[in-house]
Amino acid sequence: MSTVAAIEPRHAAGQRVRERIFRGATLAAALVVLTLLGGVAVSLLKGSWPAFSHFKLGFLTREIWNPVTDQYGALAPIYGTLVTSLLAMLLAIPVSFGIAIFLTELSPSWLKRPVGVAIELLAAVPSIIFGIWGLFVLSPILQRHVQPWLIEWLGPLPLIGKLFQGPPFGIGVLSASFVLAIMVIPFISAVMRDVFETIPDVLKESAYGLGATTWEVIWKVVVPHARTGMVGGIMLGLGRALGETMAVTFVIGNAHRISSSLLAPGTTISASIANEFTEAVGDLYTSSLVALGSLLFLITFSVIAAARFMLLRLDRRALSSV
Amino acid sequence: MSLFNPRRMLVAAAAGLALVGIAQAVDISGAGATFPYPIYSKWADAYKKQTGVGLNYQSIGSGGGIKQIKAKTVTFGASDMPLKPEEVKQAGLVQFPMIIGGVVPAVNVKGVAPGQMVLDGATVASIYLGEITKWNDARIKKLNPKLALPDTAIAPVYRSDGSGTNFLFSDYLSKASPKFKETIGANTSVQWPVGIGAKGNEGVANMTAQTDGAIGYVEYAYAKQNKMAYAQLVNKAGKAVSPSADSFQAAASNGDWAHAAGYFLILTDQAGAKSWPITGASFILVYAVPQDPAATAEALKFFDWAYKSGGQMAAELDYVPLPDALIKQVRATWKAEIKGAPAVASASHGAKRI
Question: How far is A271 from chain B (nearest CA, A)?
Answer without folding.
Answer: 9
